[in-house]
Write a structure and sequence with these properties.
Length: about 950
């Protein structure tokens, strides 16, 4: 490692992983160079219509990130650029970059409907401001590889008919079809006819031994279900949707419920099968005939209007070449291989990986890994944090108090999204006639950089002191526009945004005249409100650069250690008498790495780090304060002052009531069986017949979730048991084998070595019986349809992972959110750049400064817990790095003389902002998120939400109906 470290990081790849890693790094005090080999950023996510399991618009999730990314001065961005050479060592790399001529306008990212100009886009830092091609060098302390991946070439499997029949499309192509549909029907490519019957074929290019891609691509099952549901929702007519699959792998958080709802509520058909051929019908209809075998071996033929191939992911050729050039180790499938128990570290120190290049994964897991890679980089470069960051400066804020309102109205065409329906020039002319409006103008794209510069010019030219922008959703761009007017010298809260896209052009797309009139009315309302709003202040608060970590398992210790190595203090509180948590009971991970050796090393590192304090046999009894300034009281009466909180209290194993557990000593849970394997127990070592039963307590009506790791754990134990006794017969009774990702290799190996897999249906579960001594397990062979009875020496139960035992207690203390099953629910978050969907904040709670990691958030493996713990540390560093934080300007204010101290506001606030002090409510500004719940529900109307008072809204309604009056 170099002694001369550099406080900058190179991020390779402009997809969501690269964007998230970049934003975390910049907020934590590091300069970032981002290189993208294509001409735009956004990656695979920008190609999607919706994201599972929330079904939020993919671009509505991504756009705020793009907007935030494009506004930060400490990011240097290069398109059409690749790494040609890396020299040096961790802490001090010299990276040669090669930029090719641009074939597109790289200054504008035109993903979907939100063009976002990015500073320094395509600019050659060697001094050529025209962004021409050339080679240049950057000096960085770390490199994060996020080059993404690409989909399998479906035409390699000839019998599926891709590129032969026009109505056979890939899943990515179908996303485009959904995005461009009229939300009344889905149109197929061959003849633009409405589709009434669609099939999805799973595992195209995944779990494919013939093409040496026998890993699982992880996301295909879920995106097929999402597309099938969307196809039904986007069509006025009934659409028949069928998914042909081997195993349905809905193992993520809320995925199983999504699967059940698709099947039971939306009527999606799920057909367990093997596909033999897809051919076009001979009647000239361009329909498709699928020939397949069901799980009983019977052959069927079924006709469809359209077939969607659920293609898997692989690393791109350029990513493989990049890995080879950098000298990092790749696995057998050419994905970047990470070192054990690090989640993101490659074989070369100082170079990290996140996203698909490290293995197939969904959006939340990609975001987690990106933050984890940022956290690893921050740990490496902690002593040069802030040395290269460029703080943004603003002009002095103009005092407009006492001035008559001078309102500027700017109306957006949003390309064709608004202008194709709403008559924008008429809206502009209507606005000119409204009181206090001194300037009005239309733009093709109001959010483009050129438009923003014009708005700033018009503010100065016409002395505007209120700004209204009529365009798309405030959730995407409100904070971006507020930044613009602040750059022009106005208070950022002298701004109103009117959503004439979602509320006018989208909902009245076939009624342009009504859409136009509605847009004019919405602008009229906003102008009336703008005349009554005032400048607001954002109250500053100091940040205590210390973290409280609740839970001393792998997640908690990893989180604390990462923060400590970044230079922050961390205090671990563990309720038991020692550190280690559930990992104390695990011998090896899925890759046969020694967990106990790693755990002991981790505990030693924690105990020897002077930045970490550990308190055992204690729990949290009370918490006061807010982000940056929490005070937590422990059960031993110790008080801890800190700025952020990590909740990593783990989970626990279900103790079954079924299969004779606790009735026969040879029936064990997975953890109990693993302990006996580790101890080389004689009865296990000499067992002739061992039966492992999956989904015990999971995927049940009262636990509608998959415990995620059970299939992988059973397969791993089956291989261990075979090694102990090669003559043993090992049976795994399962519903769906969910050996996702590279764990598929162990499943394949187990089958090859003779482990017997028998599938059972949920309504016909295996039976375990005993005569008092011997065990008999009876199951139905799904192919023969006959009972099979096994004389079992050992029965292992894949018992569910249950939520933390202290979850409800801590939930009451911290006012957090729990899922229906009792796991902590990561929440939509509103920070300095506005609303973020939970896909983008997989470790954040709604209350700022509180984060979650490990089993407390949901079932996951050790490696996944480590990644989440590092991600949490990275997210916390974005707070701890700052000397102070600011509240939102739009906060609730209590009129004490009206307050009856009824506690209504305190009970209802999701952010725990109100307190009752001296018989009246007080709102803590830094906690208040401006949601308005307290103001709406206060019986005495004692609470006012600033710039959203009853008087303002009454005046708006009067203005709307002024002509009627």
């Amino acid at each position: 490692m170099s002694a001369n470290k550099v406080g900058a990081v190179l991020v390779v790849g402009g997809g969501i992983a690269g964007i998230q890693a970049t934003l975390d790094l910049v907020e934590s005090g590091y300069y970032v160079y981002l290189v993208e080999q294509s001409s735009t950023i956004g990656g695979n996510m920008s190609k999607l219509d919706k994201a599972f399991p929330t079904d939020n618009s993919s671009m509505s999730i991504l756009a705020p990130k793009l907007v935030e990314f494009g506004s930060i001065s400490s990011i240097q961005y290069f398109t059409n650029t690749q790494i040609s050479e890396v020299a040096g060592e961790a802490g001090d790399f010299k990276v040669k970059l090669s930029q090719t001529p641009n074939t597109a306008d790289t200054k504008v990212c035109t993903n979907y409907v939100t063009p976002v100009e990015l500073p320094n886009a395509g600019q050659d830092i060697s001094g050529d401001d025209n962004g021409k091609s050339g080679d240049f060098e950057v000096n960085v302390g770390a490199v994060i590889l996020c080059p993404g991946g690409e989909t399998f070439e479906a035409d390699q499997i000839e019998y599926l008919g891709y590129n032969k029949y026009p109505n056979v499309v890939t899943s990515i192509e179908f996303e485009r079809i959904l995005r461009t549909s009229d939300k009344q029907s889905v149109i197929r490519p061959s003849d633009n006819k409405k589709v009434n019957k669609i099939a999805w074929i799973q595992c195209v290019g995944s779990r494919n031994i013939r093409d040496e891609k026998h890993y699982c691509s992880c996301v295909c099952c879920m995106y097929a279900i999402k597309e099938a549901v969307c196809a039904k929702q986007y069509s006025d007519d009934e659409v028949d949707t069928s998914i042909f699959y081997m195993d349905m792998r809905t193992y993520g958080k809320d995925f199983e419920k999504y699967y059940e709802e698709a099947r039971d509520d939306h009527g999606v058909n799920f057909i367990r099968s093997r596909i033999y051929a897809i051919e076009e019908t001979k009647d000239g209809s361009n329909n498709l005939l699928i020939r397949y075998g069901d799980d009983k071996g019977e052959i069927h033929h079924e006709e469809f209007d359209m077939v969607v191939l659920s293609v898997g992911f692989k690393p791109s050729d350029s990513a493989v070449q990049l890995g080879n050039n950098l000298g990092i180790k790749l696995n057998d499938f050419n994905f970047a291989e990470t070192t054990p128990f690090t989640s993101v570290n490659t074989s070369k120190p100082g170079i990290y990986v996140a996203g698909i290049f490290g293995g197939p994964k969904d959006i939340p897991e990609t975001v987690i890994e990106a933050s984890a890679a940022a956290g690893a980089s921050e740990e490496l470069l902690s002593d040069v944090r802030g040395t290269m960051i460029q703080e943004k400066t603003y002009p002095p804020e103009k005092d407009v108090s006492g001035e008559e309102p001078r309102i500027g109205v700017f109306v957006c065409n949003c390309g064709n999204n608004i202008g194709g329906v709403v008559n924008v020039p008429k809206v502009v002319e209507s606005a000119k006639a409204l009181p206090y409006v001194v300037y009005s103008q239309e733009f093709l794209y109001t959010c483009s950089q050129d438009s923003q510069e014009i708005i700033k010019q018009k503010i100065e030219e016409h002395s505007l002191n209120r700004i209204i922008i009529a365009s798309c959703s405030p959730r995407k761009l409100k904070y971006y526009f507020q930044e613009t007017i602040r750059e022009a010298g106005l208070n950022r809260y002298l701004f109103e945004m009117v959503n004439i896209r979602d509320q006018c052009s989208f909902v009245h797309m076939n009624e342009p005249e009504k859409a136009t009139e509605k847009a004019k009315d919405l602008v009229k309302l906003s102008v009336n409100k703008a005349g009554n709003i005032e400048s607001l202040n954002e109250a500053p608060v100091n940040i205590n650069p210390k973290a409280l970590v609740i839970g001393g398992g792998v997640s908690g210790m990893t989180n604390a250690l990462n923060l400590a190595k970044q230079g922050y203090q961390a205090h671990i509180v563990e309720k038991s008498d020692r550190l280690g948590g559930n990992a104390r009971r695990i011998s090896t991970d899925f890759n046969n790495q020694d967990v106990q050796s790693y755990l002991n090393q981790l505990v030693d590192e924690v105990n020897s780090n002077t930045n970490i304090q550990v308190t055992t046999q204690a729990s949290v009894s009370k918490v006061d304060g807010y982000v940056g300034n929490f005070v937590t009281t422990l059960s031993n009466n110790e008080k801890i002052e800190h700025g952020v909180i990590t909740i990593a209290i783990g989970g626990h194993e279900y103790k079954p009531n079924e299969y004779l557990y606790n009735e026969h000593n040879a029936v064990l849970t997975q953890l109990e069986l693993e302990e006996e394997i580790t101890a080389n127990n004689t009865r296990v070592k000499n067992a002739k017949n061992i039966v492992l039963i999956q989904c015990v307590g999971s995927r049940e009506p009262d636990r509608r979730y998959c415990s995620r790791i059970c299939c992988n754990k059973s397969v791993k134990m089956a291989l261990q048991l075979q090694e102990m006794n090669p003559d043993a017969n090992i049976y795994i009774l399962y519903r769906d084998m969910r050996t996702y990702g590279f764990n598929e290799e162990n499943y394949r190996k187990a089958r090859k070595q003779g482990v017997i897999f028998i599938r059972y249906e949920v309504d016909n579960k295996p039976q375990v019986q005993t005569d008092g001594k011997d065990l008999k397990v009876t199951a139905v062979d799904h192919i023969l349809g006959e009972n099979i009875t096994i004389d079992a020496d050992i029965v292992g139960l894949a018992a569910a992972i249950l939520p933390p035992e202290d979850g409800i207690k801590l939930n009451q203390i911290f006012n957090l959110s729990l899922s229906d099953e009792g796991f902590y629910r990561e929440c939509p978050f509103r920070g300095s750049w506005g609303f973020s969907h939970k896909e983008m904040r997989p470790v954040d709670f709604a209350s700022e400064g509180i984060f979650v990691a490990g089993l407390a958030q949901g079932p996951k493996s050790i490696d996944e817990s480590i990644a989440q713990a590092k991600a949490t540390a990275s997210r916390e560093a974005t707070i701890l790095n700052k000397n102070s934080a600011k509240s939102s300007g739009i906060i609730a204010v209590v009129q004490r003389e009206k307050c009856a101290a009824c506690y209504t506001c305190a009970r209802l606030c999701p952010f725990n902002a109100p307190r009752i002090i001296n018989y009246a409510a007080e709102i803590e500004p830094i906690l208040c998120q401006g949601c308005g719940i307290c103001a709406a529900e206060c019986p005495n109307k004692a609470i006012i939400l600033q710039n959203y008072s009853d008087v303002i809204f009454t005046n708006m309604v009067d203005e709307l109906y002024r002509e009627v009056h």
